[in-house]
TrEMBL record:
Keyword Metal-binding found: yes
Gene3D superfamilies cross-referenced by the UniProt entry: Cupredoxins - blue copper proteins
Transmembrane regions: none
Protein name, as recorded: Multicopper oxidase family protein
Plastocyanin-like domain sequence ranges: 55-162, 180-282, 352-470
Record keywords, A-Z: Metal-binding, Oxidoreductase, Signal
Residues spanning the signal sequence: 1-25
């Protein structure tokens, strides 16, 4: 996917963490929970070796002063206990991306609950209803973009009751960073040129925010489970995955029938996740690569390489369809659904002068849904429906830029363009190409006030947001 973007500073670098990898690969030990069993998510400044030595460490904001933050991992049916502590100089709030949990826990700050002021803390206790790969990140207007862009994010894994077979697991948090010549984050968040176009993109690509090591090595024929997370604030990542036998088994935390990505290419919007099963080639000296496709003047970037070496592993069992979530509806009664088009407009046009740089309130009105610019925290709801009602939304993208639209608190089906069928997987966000329309459907089964907004945070903070209510 080729997207327009402004010029970047800094060199083009691929990075890979030593942590959050399988045993035997310098795995980090996550912070121990507090005495009361709560994992501490302390939002504070820190520094990480984002670029290879001898470059200086990059100053970041992270949970526990690190990127990614502590891995939260439970088995389905177990409780998550986390304590958010705000040691920043601005308010913050936490969003549990893709988790269908109670509105008072995951609702937007300012719409459902108060934000967390500097020095305050908040406890989270909940039992996730679904197994899968999820993501936690800030959700507070207008600070979400800066806070995520400086590194405030982490991964939640809810393990299925019967583990899916693999020899090893890789948790791969993909990101891009805008750095200056000294390797420090460029503080031009909410820049008009980004807001008007695709959003803030960075020239430094990373996996888990660490300096790039040598390629990883596994036995020929080994089966790996790759959990991919797009942690970027704006980049819709086009990932090319050559080598080995590859099947996607889950999207946005929900299992699906296994399939090979079309042309071995996987598009992931900001905050999106995908679980893959990779069977490596059964001979030595073969490789699998994770390649981030370039855009505009940026070339393709190899984020990860895995090579085969050593004794051949006995053949793994065939990849079987994982158990689908029994809590999700087998069908959606489209003929009985609440129907509404969301017309997405704004941003730069072909006639926008290059010198146009809106600021203040003009910047906040760059994007709109159905002619209204909003932070998603004000005004009446887009719609209100009773719990259990089916909903069909037409996402009409009138702009020149791809959009990634997130529906909070729910998962949706992407409808076929030419009939009333749907894709055989669930998503919590969908990509809508420029000048195109996509339709989604879901059952509004989670009571509360929920955002429907851009996952591109520059657009979210500057008009492309609204909310709906389930009563």
């Amino acid at each position: 996917m080729r997207l327009h973007r402004r010029a970047f500073t800094g060199s083009i670098v691929a990075t890979l963490i030593a942590g959050l990898r399988p045993a035997g690969a310098d795995e980090k030990t996550p912070p121990a929970p507090g005495d009361d069993g709560f994992t501490l998510l302390e939002a504070r400044p820190g520094a990480v070796p984002l670029l290879p030595a001898p470059a200086a460490q990059t100053k970041i904001w992270g949970f526990g002063g690190d990127v990614p933050g502590p891995l939260l991992r439970v088995r389905l049916g177990q409780e998550i206990k986390a304590r958010l502590i705000n040691k920043l100089d601005q308010p913050t709030a936490l969003h549990w991306r893709g988790m269908r949990i109670a509105n008072e826990i995951d609702g937007a700050a300012g719409l459902v609950h108060k934000s967390l002021a500097p020095g305050e803390s908040r406890d989270f206790r909940f039992t996730p209803p679904d197994a899968g790969t999820f993501f936690y990140q800030p959700l507070i207007q207008p600070f979400s973009g800066e806070q995520l862009g400086r590194g405030l994010q982490g991964v939640v894994i809810v393990d299925e009751p019967k583990p899916i077979f693999s020899d090893s697991e890789l948790i791969l948090v993909l990101d891009d960073w805008r750095l200056d010549a000294k390797g420090q984050i460029v503080p031009d968040f909410d820049h008009p040129a980004d807001v008007l176009r695709q959003g803030r993109l960075g020239a430094v690509g990373s996996v888990n925010a660490r300096a790039k090591p040598a390629p990883l090595t596994f036995a020929p024929g080994a089966r790996l489970r790759l959990r991919l997370v797009n942690a970027a604030t704006a980049r819709i990542m086009s990932l090319y995955l050559p080598g080995g036998d590859l099947k996607a088994i889950a999207l946005d935390g929900q299992f699906c029938d296994p399939f090979e990505p079309h042309d071995r290419t996987l598009p992931l919007g900001p905050g999106a996740r995908c679980d893959l099963l990779l069977d490596l080639a059964p001979t030595e000296n073969q490789s699998f690569k994770l390649i981030l496709r370039g855009e505009a003047e940026l070339p393709d970037l190899t984020l990860l390489e895995i090579r085969t070496k050593g004794a051949v592993r006995p053949p793994a069992p065939p990849i079987a369809a994982p158990p689908l979530n029994p809590l999700l509806p087998a069908e959606i009664r489209l003929e009985k659904s609440k129907r509404l088009d969301l017309v997405i407009a704004g941003g730069a046009t072909r006639t926008t002068p290059s010198r146009y740089k809106p600021t203040g309130e003009a910047l906040r009105r760059v994007w709109s849904i159905n002619g209204r610019s909003s932070t998603g925290l004000d005004g009446p709801p887009l719609f209100s429906v009773k719990k259990g009602s089916p909903v069909t939304l037409g996402l009409v993208n009138k702009s020149l830029f791809a959009q990634a639209i997130h529906v909070q608190g729910h998962v949706v089906r992407l409808l076929h363009d030419l009939d009333d069928g749907w894709e055989p997987y669930w998503r919590d966000s969908v990509i809508v190409p420029p000048k195109r329309t996509k339709h989604i459907a879901f059952v509004a089964d989670n009571p509360g006030k929920w955002l429907v907004a851009s996952a591109i945070l520059d657009h979210f903070a500057n008009g492309l947001a609204a909310w709906f209510e389930v009563v």
